[in-house]
Amino acid sequence: MRRSDLDERRNGGQVLVIFALALTAIVAMTGLVLDGGSTFVQRRDMQNVADSAAMAAAYAYGMGGGVPGAQAAAVSTAASNGYTDGTGGVSLTVQTNAAGGAGRTFQVTINAPHQNNFAGLLGMSTWQVATTATTKAGWPNAVTGAMPIIFNQEAFDANGAGVGHEATYTEPPVGSQDVPQTSTTFNWTMYCDQCNADSNVVDDLIINGGLSTETTLNDKISPLNAGSHTTLYSDLALYGIGGEFPVPIVDDNGLMVGWAMFHVTGSSGGSTKSISGYFVSPINANNFLIVDTAPAGGQFGNYSVKLIN
C-alpha cells in the first residue's frame, strides 16, 4: 500500500474525530440556548405564581384564616396555576415570621424541574428551577418624613379629608395644656421624650421636610410649650405650603393613635398665629409603613398587603 493511501486514511480518521467532537459541542451549545431560554420562561412563570401565592397567603391571613388558612391559600393558588405541591417534582413551602408587632411576612418558595430537550442528550435531562416571593401584611404604623405638627383625633373626625375640607388651626391656649384638645387646635412637636422645649429643633424639621428617619407609634412626641414660635410659622409658610406631609394624630393625652397626610395651604405668624390645610389620607393609610417592632394602628387604618421580594 502506498504511503499516500495511509496518510489519506489517517487524515480521514482525524476528520471523523474532529467532526464528532464538533457535533457534541454544537449539540451542547444548542441545548444551552434552547433549553436555557425555555428555563428562563419557566422561571418567569414560576415567579408570577409565587407572587400570587404569597399575596393570597397574606390576604387569607387578614381575613381571619390565621397561619393555616394563609398556607392553604398559597398552596391552592399555586396549584390552580399549574404548580401542585408533591406532583411532577414540584415542591412548595410557605414560611411566616413569629406573631407580634404590626405585621407578618409570608414567604412562598416554589421548586420545579425543567424538562430539557437537547441538553438531555448530554445527560442533563432536567434543571431545577426555584423562585421565592415575600409579602408583608398588617396595619400601617410608621412613616418617614413626619412633619413636627400634631392634631387631636377630633380634628380629623370633625373636618374630614379631601380638598373641600380645609380648616384653620391655632395653638392650644396659654397654660399648662400643650396637647391639642379640639378640632381646631394643633401644636408643634419635637418627637422626643422629656426634652426641653426647643423651637430651633422644630424649625430644623420644618426646613428639612420632616424627620428623615422612620417614626412609629412607639415614639414619643413631646409637644412644645405655649409660646410665640413666630419663626416656625414663617418657615412653614416658606417651606411647607403646597406640600403634603405625614403628621401624628393623638388622643387627649397626647398619645399617638395613628398618622395622616396633611396638605399645608397657609401659615400665619401674625397677631393670630394659625396654620391651615386639609387632611389628604385616612388615618394609617395603606401606603404608610409597617414596622414589626411597633404596635399596630389599632382601630384605625386598613389591612395592607405589600409584595416586598
Describe the structure.
The chain is an alpha+beta fold. It has two domains: 3-137, no CATH class; 142-289, no CATH class. The chain has helices at residues 3-80, 153-159, 199-207, 230-239, and strands at 91-96, 103-115, 126-138, 142-144, 149-152, 167-170, 186-188, 214-216, 244-250, 256-268, 274-279, 304-307. The termini are far apart. The model has no long low-confidence stretch (mean pLDDT 83).
Descriptive key words:
4-stranded antiparallel sheet, alpha+beta, 34% helix, 4 helices, 309 residues, 6-stranded mixed sheet, single chain
Gap between N and C termini, in Å? 74 Å
**Could you tell me the number of beta strands?**
12
Largest sheet: 6 strands, mixed
- How many DSSP H or I helices? 4
Shape estimate: elongated
Short description:
The chain is an alpha+beta fold and 309 residues long. It contains 4 helices and 12 strands; from the N terminus they run H-E-E-E-E-E-H-E-E-H-E-H-E-E-E-E.
Chain-wise SSE layout:
Layout: H1 3-80, E1 91-96, E2 103-115, E3 126-138, E4 142-144, E5 149-152, H2 153-159, E6 167-170, E7 186-188, H3 199-207, E8 214-216, H4 230-239, E9 244-250, E10 256-268, E11 274-279, E12 304-307
Parallel strand pairs: 5-9
Antiparallel strand pairs: 1-2, 2-3, 3-12, 4-8, 5-7, 6-11, 9-10, 10-11
Helix pairs in contact: 3-4
